[in-house]
Amino acid sequence: EYVESLNRVYEEPDRIIDVGYAQVGTESAWRLANTQSIKTAAKDFGINLIYEDGNQSQERQIEALRRFIEMEVDVIVLSPVVDSGWDEVLEEAQDAGIPVLLSDRKVSTQKDDMYMTFIGADFLEEGRRAMRWLAGTMEDPLEHVRIMEIEGTVGASPSEERSQGFQEVMQEYPNCQIVYSACGDFTYEGGKQVVEDYMASHKWDIDVIFSQNDDMALGAAEALEAHGLKPGVDVKLISVDGARSAFQALIDKRLNCVVECSPLLGPQLMKAVKDLMAGKELPLRIITDEKVYTQENAQQYIRSRKY
Length: 307
Ligand code: GYE
What we know:
This is Substrate-binding domain-containing protein. The chain has helices spanning 3-11, 29-44, 58-71, 87-95, 123-137, 157-170, 188-201, 214-226, 244-251, 266-277, 298-302; strands at 18-23, 48-53, 75-78, 100-103, 118-120, 145-151, 176-183, 208-211, 236-241, 257-260, 285-287, 292-294.
């Protein structure tokens, strides 16, 4: 279906490739680093990037995709804010012969040939890693652990899969229980609000907070401190992403564990665009390499952090 757009490039091999890129928004440190990585890589690869910020709204992202189709870009890159509801517009892109690549987050569609590849992290594994770390810190395996989960955007693949992975491992520890779960929308303010809301109607009885990103974890830490609790000591805090601010929080002992999720997808993404336009076959899934960081090793790694 994308032969038409490929032909345009084959006929003029020196022509610059136009990529329409629909980003989620500016909700987190991760996202800002992700945008930067993609913009820089586009320049390095000599690709013309048409950037659209979705401001965390699917509607805005769909409008952006329709503009890209209208402009007849060569390739569309989508980081979908939520995973469902894309069938119609992806069908339109397919009908126009424009290939779509997914960056960072996934979509769930009726048909499975609606995109060329998905470049991003293994969110399920990130969730499992978070719970495995917690299990490794429990001195008494029968110790009762009350967990608060601060979830990212509702319906986004990282939120759903981090939860799922965490719970999958948690099942092996019947003494561990998620007693409260609420959405913080991947923002600092959102994380803070979840803790504030809980405080407003409960006596504090949480041992561990599993926050699905750094910004929400740091917001939660601020809220705990405002109520005289010490994050990292009175409440264990686990986070995902690995932004520099989270490394600093590990060093300051306000955070206990960070499961890495790299936003530096730009080079892989632009390489995929080039390969696609050169008629090469793309793997259906490109996964990034990630680690787990703690108070013990944060100091050693903080200087080499790129985001
Ligand atoms: O963890 C969060 C961001 O989709 C993996 O989105 C990404 C997530 C990331 O807002 O910080």
